[in-house]
Amino acid sequence: MAENIKGDKITDQQTYLNRRNFMRAAAVAGTATATTLLYRRLNPPPPVPVEGQKLNEVVRAANDANGFTTNEKLTAIEAITNYNNFYEFDTTKDGVASAAKGFVTRPWAVAVEGLVHKPRFFDIDELLKFPLEERVYRLRCVEGWSMVIPWIGFPLHKLLERVEPTSQARYVAFQTLLDPARMPNQQTGVLDWPYVEGLRLDEAMHPLTILATGLYGETLPPQNGAPVRLVVPWKYGFKSIKSVVKITLVASEPPTTWNIQAPYEYGFHSNVNPNVSHPRWSQATERRIGEYGRRNTPLFNGYAEQVAHLYQGMDLVQNF
Amino acid sequence: MKISFPKLVLFINAVIPLVLLLWDLYRKQVGPNPLEFATRTTGMLTLVFLSLTVAITPLRQIFGFNSLVKFRRMLGLFAFFYGSLHLLTYVWFDRLFNLVSVATDVVQRPFILLGMTAFLLMLPLAITSTNKMVKRLGGKRWARLHRLVYLAAIAGVVHFWMLVKSDIRLPLTFAFIILFLLGYRVLVKYFPSDVKVS
Q: Domain spans of chain A?
């Protein structure tokens, strides 16, 4: 066979080696590109820039005696707006901002009803006319991380006073918007929609409990619960329900979403407590976003002086 | 030592995720919680390489890709390598090398205990991965020892599952892959005539 091939048809050794090297380089480049693209899918999407409107006439807290402010270092706005738990949009924390981009929050009204003398709707523009205050609060997530956030809002009790709760009202139930077209992850069954939360009436009336309509001087970005959300700084973050459309005064303890999801892991109260572990992890320490290592978690997230009296005589282990 | 070209390609591709991770960390493109990102990424890579390692035998038996066996050691060692990095990110960034705090954490958090177990199961396999060690142990004993990789894979997946709050799609995916790859072996062992082996 071999003798029949003419000399000029035989690939000379140099060309053969060049070709082989070329094929090998192509193999390396091709697989390396594929691996890179595959790996890139694990990466978080690039941070979404904030596009809020400035909120004017915001009163700043004078001192930290009442817990309204803190001199701890503020968490960067990029972190606050790109690291969110908001399952209505996405279950990854770094994916919420891009999934919530363009979320339409006008028109928006909050129904306040139930055991009240004057049930009514509050339009978002009316809510923004409540005297706005800046509150710099620690936020402690049940997952073991924390931030310091300069919220803008007003105390919930100012809203509740307008509707005049009846004497039977003992609890306040909150509900997030249910609209799978605007909140795409509501098309999945990852949680029981709509998201619902609740507080005891005395917790809801506490001066630290606010309805937030902004942060860092501007209106709330969608990923942080636009246009209006609850903030209860001494409880785990999931109690601070986002994008609220309904507030109902009720006589008995209302159902709450994470408690429905896993009753043994998330209680109705969910006060921040370093001494009561989550069944799968300790709550003794937390990672402050932007810091290395972990810091100790204080009881009631550092607001014990202001709120401990609400739970006097209560077994905090039983009522986790 | 001379490394064959296909192995070199595998090596390059296995190192790429680490290079990209370091590059992203350097240019701060990993989100607001870089430590969590590094831990999660190295953890996922460990599971990916563990899955690839235990996929070799079924691939050989079902499709007859016998030559794949020459990649198995490298895949297993990369699983161990990324597992070590995963452990290092936790001991370093989460515990600041405080070993007492690591010990308490292992006791307090079952998922940390499982992760640690998976790592300790991989450790003897990495140590005995050399040709010399195979000879010293004898093929049969060596193979029996290396079945620990099944336990490591199971512990790794449960470890991942336990830290997820509600969206279990990713751990579930890994669980299915591992279950399939290990289930295949069980079927072959107990019902050899029913499983087509080419």
A: 11-40, 59-311
For A42, which of B9, B41, B105 is closest by C-beta distance? B41
Residue in B5, B33, B95 closest to A289 by CB: B33
B-chain residues near A35 (CB < 8 A): 13, 16-17
Q: Say whether the ipTM exceeds 0.90.
A: no
The C-alpha atoms of residue A152 and residue A127 are separated, in whole angstroms, by: 12
- Domain membership of residue B16 (yes or no) is no
Query: What mean pLDDT comes out for the span A220-236?
Result: 97
What value does the mean pLDDT take over residues B109-138? 93
Nearest to B33 among A32, A42, A145 (CB): A145
Residues in chain A: 320
Is B29 contained in some domain? no
pLDDT digits 0-9 by tens, A124-153? 999 999 999 999 999 999 999 999 999 999
**For chain B, which residues lie within 8 Å of any Cβ of chain A, measuring from their own Cβ?**
5, 8-9, 12-13, 16-17, 20, 24, 29-33, 35-37, 41, 44, 93-96, 105, 108-111, 162-163, 165-167
Cβ atoms of A177 and A194 closer than 8 Å: yes
Domain-embedded: residue B198: no
Is the CATH number 3.40.440.10 carried by domain A59-311?
no
Range of the domain at B116: 40-190
Cβ within 8 Å, pair B166-A78: no
Confidence of residue B1 (pLDDT cuts 50, 70, 90): low
Within a domain: B6: no
